[in-house]
Amino acid sequence: MQLTEVEKQPASFVIPMVAAAGAVVGLLVGTANNRPLLGVVIGAVLLAALAWGVMTFLHEKEKQGRWGIFALFVVLGVALGGVPGFVMGVIFGAFFGWYIYWLEGGHYRERLPPYLSSGQVLWEYTFRIICGAIFVFLITPILVVMPLSFNAEDFFTFTPEMLRFDPDGYSLKHYRDFFTNNEWQRSFKNSLIIAPIATVISVSLGTLAAIGLSQSHVPGRRAIMAILISPMIVPLIISATGMFFFYSMIGNWMEGTLGISQNVSGYIKVILAHAVLGIPFVIITVTATLVGFDRSLTRAAANMGAGPVRTFFKVQMPLILPGVISGGLFAFITSFDEVVVVLFVGSAGQKTLPWQMFTGLREQISPTILAVATILVGISIALLTTVELLRRRSERLRGMSPG
C-alpha cells in the first residue's frame, strides 16, 4: 500500500534538513577554495534562510518557487565563478528547487510503506545516501580522467583554460595521437588478437567445466571448483610468476621441438595465460545460470533419442546462453585490461594496450594514456551494459522475473 496524500511538513523539520544539504554543498565549494569550515557554515546558513523564505512566502507557489531558486543559484554562480559557476549554479539550483518542495510537501514518504516510523524513514534515506557516497567515491577517479583526455596541453592536470571552460583549453590531439601513432596501434591490434582468442578458449573450457561440476554425482566437485577458480583468489603477481616458469618451458618446447617461431609461441603463451585468468569468470556465471536450469528437459531429449551433443546444442545451450555470453564478456575484459601476466609471459612483440599504457606512465608520461583510458572506459561500460541486459534476459527465461 502506498500513500496517496501526504501532509505538509513543518519548518522545524524542513529547515534543518535543507541546512544539512547546504552544509555538504558548502563543504565542497569551501574545500575547492581552501576554506572548508567556512564553506560549511555559510552553506548551512544560506540554505536554511532560503528554506525559511520559501516556506514563508512561496508556500503555495511551487512552480514560481522552483524557478526563483534556480535563477538565484545561477546568478550567484555567474557572479562568483563565471562559466564554471554558471554550470554549478544550474546543477545546485535545479537540485535545491526540487529538494525543498520535496521535503516540505512530504513527497519523500510517497514511495515508502505508510507504517514506517520516522526513525525507519530516516534510516532508509541514510542508507541510500551511504550507497550514493560509495558510488561517487568509486566513480570519481574515472570521471576525472575523462575530461582530462581532452586537455589541449601535455599535462595531467586541469589547466586554467579548462577550468574556465575556454574552448582553447580543449583538444582532440591525444585521441589523434592514439589513432596515428604506430606504437599505440600495434599494441591495440595485439590486444584485439589476444583477447578474443583467449575468450573463446575460456568460454569453451569454462562452460564444459561448469556443466560437469553441476552434476551431483561428480566426486570432489567442491575441491575441483576451488582449484578452477583459484586464479581469481590468488594474488596476480604470484600467478604471473608461476606462469612465467611454466609457459617458458612450453615456449622452449614449441620452438625447439615443433619449430614454431619465437613471436608465434609468445602469442600462444599469452593467450593461454589469459585463458586461465578468464576461465573462473565463465565457470561462475554459467554455474549461476545452471542453478535454475530444468534438468528434466535434457532427460526428455535423451528419451526422444537425442545424443548428448545434440541435446547440449539444441536444448541446454539456448537456455544457458546468457550466462555463457556474460562469462565470455568478463573473460574478454579481463584479458583486454590485464598487464601483469603479459609482462611476465609475453615479449616486446606481444605488447598489449595496457602494457603500452604502463610503459607510457613509467617512461615518457604521455597524456595519450588519458585518451586510451577514456576509450577503455567506454568499451567496459558497453560490455557491462550488455552483461546486465543478458542477466535480465536469463532471469526471464528461467522464470525468476516477470517478462
Please explain how this structure is put together:
By secondary structure, this protein is mainly alpha-helical. It has 2 domains: 11-115, no CATH class; 182-397, MetI-like (MetI-like fold, Orthogonal Bundle). Helix content is 77%, strand content 0%. It is built from 16 helices and no strands. It has helices at 11-32, 36-57, 62-104, 118-148, 160-163, 173-180, 182-213, 221-228, 230-233, 236-256, 262-290, 296-303, 308-337, 340-345, 353-364, 368-397. α1 (11-32) packs across α3 (62-104) and α13 (308-337) runs antiparallel to α16 (368-397). The radius of gyration is 28 Å and the shape is flat. The two termini are 23 Å apart.
Q: Which percent bin holds the helix content?
A: over 70%
Number of folding domains? Answer: 2
Helices and strands, in order, run as: HHHHHHHHHHHHHHHH
User: Mind telling me the C-alpha Rg?
Assistant: 28 Å
Describe the sheet with the most strands: none
Q: Which fold does the CATH topology of the largest domain refer to? A: MetI-like fold
**What separation lies between the terminal Cα atoms?**
23 Å
Question: What structural class is derived from the secondary structure elements?
Answer: mainly alpha
CATH superfamily of the largest domain: MetI-like
CATH arch. level architecture of the largest domain: Orthogonal Bundle
Please report the first level of CATH classification, the CATH class of the largest domain. Answer: Mainly Alpha
